[in-house]
Design brief:
Low-confidence stretches: 22-33
Largest sheet: none
Order of helices and strands: HHHHHHHHHHHHHHHHHHH
Length: 406
């Protein structure tokens, strides 16, 4: 497994975590739109006005306003402009004609795309995302989220997708559009993703120009300060939740850094340093109770560099075995306070993890079969049988998952 493949796996994990986060949020909230009756009621309450006051301002009865807020009747079209002015909003807001979507609306739509892909395939989900982007062309958060969701799904479904290059170019264009939006958070995320893509395409000047647009990391850590504030207020579980998420993000970043450094040192030829980094990496995986799969990535890289057939196959056996047991923070006592909102049922969670495992296994097997870096293994009978064994497991799990859905 080379550095590019490992980076792609990390990227896919980020994308899928985002998709899974969207799924979990829907168990905590409901609905994606705010009808006009709710707009009237909520804005009136925000301004601390009574129904009688609204009625007096507009020259209608209080029961009429009450019916508007219940949704049993609607204001006359001639009343809409003065009603909007009374509520101190514009007509677009009153009538729910927004140029953008809320974060929750985007989360719900993302989940719909994932379900669509599972049922109808990647092309259908892509079309659905593309149509939504056309509907809200100025929503930077939507465009960046769609690019991320589609990127993760493209990786997981890659082995069975035709015209993959077309989708890659479309996703790239989404990121480039998001990189020009007014939403700073979405813009920075898009810049981050674009840098990796430009490097992969060997467009180094573009990569550097995009890198220069990213802000330097602030020494003022808002999350750390929020945790301190919660701790002082004795809200310890909430503080632990923030700190555990911060810890896990930091460890994931450290993993990528160590792996990249190992890749560099292998090219330099400093075997002693590579060995030290490999041991430190493996110890970190163990101490921080992370996914065992990651512990085998660097040893495989070393064995691959040496073209050691026996060692490579031994490592691959362990990697594939651990891949059959997807890891989540819930598996570890170190991250037991992490909160994603109300969780789905055990059955639904199990089904989603099975799908994730099957997709990731399928993608990894395809890469192992086609990677030029592993060409020295491709004619080895034990390697061929190993892949066949896990393709059979992959297909069996896929059939069982389909039957559960039915």
């Amino acid at each position: 497994m080379n550095a590019q493949l490992y980076s792609t796996l990390i990227l896919a994990r980020i994308c899928l975590e985002k998709a899974f986060s969207c799924f979990l949020k829907l168990y905590k909230h409901g609905g994606i739109t705010m009808p006009i009756n709710l707009v009237i009621r909520n804005k009136r309450k925000e301004l601390e006005l009574t129904q009688e006051q609204i009625a007096n301002y507009l020259g209608v009865s209080a029961p009429a306003v009450n019916k508007w807020e219940k949704g049993t009747s609607y204001p006359d079209i001639s009343l809409l402009p003065p009603l909007a002015r009374t509520l101190k909003i514009d007509l677009n807001t009153l009538l729910c004609f927004e140029e953008s979507l809320t974060t929750h609306e985007i989360a719900q739509f993302s989940t719909q795309i994932i379900k669509n892909m599972e049922k109808n395939g990647y092309e259908s989900g892509f079309h659905m995302a593309n149509e939504k982007v056309k509907e809200y062309p100025n929503s930077g958060e939507l465009i960046e989220t769609m690019a991320t969701i589609l990127e993760g799904a493209l990786f997981m479904y890659g082995a069975e997708i035709e015209h993959k290059e077309f989708y890659e170019e479309q996703i790239l264009s989404f990121y480039e559009r998001a990189a020009k939006c007014d939403d700073e958070k979405a813009r920075n995320k898009a810049h981050y993703m674009l840098i990796s893509k430009y490097i992969k395409k060997k467009e180094y000047e573009k990569a550097q120009q995009t890198l220069d647009l990213l802000p330097e990391r602030s020494a003022l850590d808002k999350k750390q300060l929020q945790a301190m504030l919660l701790q002082e207020q004795n809200q310890l579980v909430e503080a632990a939740n923030i700190l555990e998420q911060k810890l896990l993000r930091g460890i994931n970043e450290l993993q990528i850094t160590i792996f990249s450094l190992v890749d560099v040192e292998l090219k330099i030829g400093d075997d002693e340093k590579v060995e030290k980094l490999s041991n430190a990496f493996k110890e970190m995986i163990s101490q921080f109770e992370l996914w065992d799969y990651n512990a085998y990535v660097i040893p495989l890289q070393i064995a691959q560099k040496r073209k050691d057939v026996d060692e490579s196959i031994t490592i691959l056996k362990s990697m594939l075995k651990t891949l059959m047991k997807p890891w989540t923070p819930k598996n570890s006592s170190l991250y037991n306070h992490m909160n994603y909102g109300e969780s789905p049922s055990e059955e639904e969670l199990h089904m989603k993890l099975d799908r994730f495992r099957t997709r990731m296994l399928s993608t990894l097997l395809s890469n192992l079969e086609s990677s030029p870096d592993l060409e020295f293994l491709h004619s080895n009978k034990e390697f061929i049988n190993l892949l066949k064994e896990y393709w059979d497991k992959c297909n069996k799990t896929e059939r069982e998952t389909r039957n559960m859905i039915k």
